[in-house]
Amino acid sequence: MDPTSQTIQQQFQRYYLEPARRITGPQSMANREFGFLLFKEKFMVRHRSFRTNEQLLGAIRDLVPAHVYFSTARYKEPTATMEEKGWEGADLVFDIDADHLDTECKPTHDNWKCKGCGNVGRGSAPKICPSCKNDRFEEQTWLCEKCLRQAKEETEKLLDIVISDFGVDPSNLRIFFSGHRGYHVHVNSKDLSGLDEEERKEIVDYVLGLGLETKLQGLNQTSSGGVTTVEGPMMGEPGWRGRIVTGIYDLLSEGVENLQLGSAQTQAFKEWNREALFTKPFWNSVRGAGLGTWQALALKAVQKKSSRIDTVVTTDIHRLIRLPGTLNGHTGLLAVEVQSERLDDFDPFTESTVFAGSMKVHVKEAPSFRLGTVHLGPFHDESVTLPAAAAMLLLCKRRAEPAT
Ligand SMILES: [Zn+2]
Ligand SMILES: [Zn+2]
User: Fold this and answer.
1) Domain assignment of residue 36, given as a range
2) Check: complex ipTM more than 0.85
3) Burial bucket for residue 356 (CB in 10 Å: 0-12, 13-18, 19+)
4) Mind listing the pLDDT tens digit for each residue in 257-271?
């Protein structure tokens, strides 16, 4: 094992060995599969099962893994091979990760290198390399405040859809900060646990607003006596109908100029009182705006109101997902539960740090960042003594090495 991994593992071990340490397993714990990604050779220990929290903590203390996972599924025999486990249902799980968000700050803190030709670029890696068409990259990412704030907004939109549209009781919902670049939402509900992959794909499409047809949301036009009338949904209607109207309101509030309308329409929308969206049928009250314009606005509204979830995580009914209360080996931060009423106030850079004291590290390259109330960096090829949580973050992100 390299010295950086050794140092990280020692710190993780000290954390897990603290006598007061407690880990709480998921519901139906004995029917879940657990997996541990080890520091050594990134080896994955899978198909483990535990009856009690104490047994689970015992295994974590023995292995001191970089990552701890459990299955969203419940199995008759969680330790058996995949074919023989006996699937008994799975939580509905959503993952919102900055990896899937288009934030403007990404080029300032993320970069990639093509494994085929060595081509490099800033921001998220492209799907295929522009010079050699290879699709494999080394990526260096950073967890930044703006990206995490955006991830939180996506989570809030998701919660609205899950609660208002799917009718999930908020008491069956749990929200977690992943300890890295995003949030997880777990729905534990008997009604939903039997859904298969196809059915979960439908849920994904709904949340993303994928394939949504505005006509089916009531946006249409009728003609009578040579007069064309646009009709559409109203504010407060359930589902995407009402959400489209709210979305249009939000878009107009942010500035008509950004909507790429014609100049006459831009002017007409500027002069129009958007509060009309709240009160009366408004679809015919903007001069020069016909069905086509409203359709275009409605589709932009869908984009705005949809939640950018990771499609693979939700559809995979055998998924292993991070166990809350464990350390994330990508950052040294704790994966923690966030109470929904506190989501808005939750500060991942304060509430998920665990390492106290200070550590000396040699930083190769790191942007400026904040942990708690302390602002640090940027660093460039220098040895520094840092608060341990910050040093661990840099070690885990492979931006630094241990120094003596
Ligand atoms: Zn390439
Ligand atoms: Zn960012």
Assistant:
1) 3-97+157-203+310-354
2) yes
3) exposed
4) 989 888 888 999 999
